[in-house]
Amino acid sequence: MSANSATVGTSDINDDIDTATRLAIFRKMTEARLLEKRAYDLFLQNLVKGTSHLGIGQEAIAAAFGAAMKPDDYTFCTYRGHNHTLARGVPMAGILGELMGRECGLLRGKGGSMHLTSVEHGVMGSYAIIGAHLPIAAGAAWSAQYRGTKQVAVCFFGDGTTNIGAFHEALNMAVVMKLPVIFVCENNLYMEYTPIASVTAVTHPAADRAGAYGLPSIIVDGNDGDEMYRAATKAIELARAGGGPSLIEAKTYRHGGHSRADPASYRPKEEVQKWLALDPLPRYRRRLLEHGVSESALAAIEANVKQQVEEATIAAKASPSPSPDLITRDVWADGGSSWRN
Amino acid sequence: MAELTYRAAVAAGIAQEMERDTNVVFLGEDVAGAGGVFKATVGLLERFGPKRVIDTPISEQAILGAAMGAAMTGLKPIAEIMFSDFLAVCWDIVANEIAKARHMTDGQMTIPLVIRTANGGGSRFGAQHSQSLENWAMAVPGLKVVAPSSPADVKGLLAAAVRDPDPVIFFEHKSLYATKGEVPEGEHIERLGEAKVLREGKDVTLLALAAMVPRAVSAAEVLQETHGISATVVDVRSLVPLDTKTILREVNKTGRLVTVEENPRLCGWGAEIASIVAEESFHELGAPILRITTPHIPLAAADKLEDLMIPSVERIVDSVRKSLE
Fold first, then answer.
1. What is the pLDDT of residue A4?
2. Tell me, which fold does domain A16-315 have in CATH?
3. What pTM value is reported for the model?
4. In terms of Cα–Cα distance, which of B31, B55, B26 is closest to A146?
């Protein structure tokens, strides 16, 4: 192992994850990183309006789950959901277009950055009210259980969510009903602007609560693509086999602020430096090289993703604003919005 | 026809739909083993089993969240919120999630679910178990809102709500559970968004909802017999969609509109209807619109006090009579 092995991760070099899977995870992480950077550039150009919450630094979690899930499994995201949406194979232009309020957006501009959804890819919504989607994910899992489809639901959320009631209601109900749902807490150490440790009764906001619901305490290095993939696979297999829910706490770090309005100056420099050294993307790149993947193969993926981002950007910029008649469309299942005769 | 209580009609309506469609599932607090705290769901567990009739923890957000997640993935859940007052603890799921999912996702999601809830006063339960909250739901785009007044409508409108592809909040009135009425034998389904003219008169049109309907009918009888005033009574039944055609037609016939509302005064459902009538039928009106409501005060528990607050037959009669003087 290299001298900086402590920051490279502890995975056994002769392990269970095949190279194709690792390359898929690497590609998803690269896609997420480059697309989020592009989203940030588009803010600065005032082409993305409103707010947006970037997931730069947290890509390994979404990417590993994206690689571990089957196409008909369900993803539930938060408002910081670009990575998770992308990781299910949703086209980049649909994401950028939605951020920019364009016709080509996933929701044709009706949802915005915080509500990315693509039902055809299993992305069952991005939820912007903390905690709301945990019981909703449990409901999708209940439906899968009832219909006997062997689908699982994966619900991603932040550390701040562990202090809201819906988290606890959903955990309890999911365990009682033995639902095929995986709750994934991305602990990036801050609930918005406030250190999670300063407002939480326990050290590990999710894992220390697991025991209250009869679940094992699972803490994973969320910046290690392999460790995340192993945890994802294990929890998904358990859920699919009828073994019920899991709660995973993935330790990670936001490279930027909570939202575009936040420069994140409240975070100590040393802490930021420590976590930047643990950046999941270069770590995983090194891992793949250690596993014998060639530099040129990785560079080719990176070049290809860059090209994808460029093409998506061009497509989104070229896409018109949504048609005004969309406003009154689809309040109801009949396609309309009428509340009277 | 068979005579059923309002509460038995609830179970009959749910059973009819569960029998018809195995994707219909039912969940809530105390709904299965206990048959509901109002005994409105007795027998469903025995008939359809614990996979489809589910006792939940006291977790309203989990109940409605689960119903929403199930609805967006192919099931047709009926979720019970025991008292409508408890909607306040899960209003995020109702107003921010369920109501908005379809429009916000550009039609990608369909949320075919029914939230049944016991609404309204008269049971001496005090301010947190007696409210009439249908106007909360009416104020949120994306929710359909129904409040039946008779056993036949309970069964027929509940069936319509289950079959409707959109989310429906179904307000049952707890003081009506023991009332009886004829319900058609066999499959019975009504249409959402249709008001029902219960009585035709010449002098004034009373619009009422849920428990205010039988009171408005009784008041109309007294007005006719004692005061020679002939009143039309319309059961609004559905606030969203709203049958403005029937409402405007029946108001135009008499030129006088009186709403009888159990909700507190401000922004009650009658205010919206009054505004529609004022905008669209002003020149047909022969007198100012009158709204009879519960005052804008939390409900008291003591019987004598609660009775002074919710519109009574006597208050309806007096108010209508004075407005015609």
1. 37
2. Rossmann fold (3.40.50)
3. 0.96
4. B26
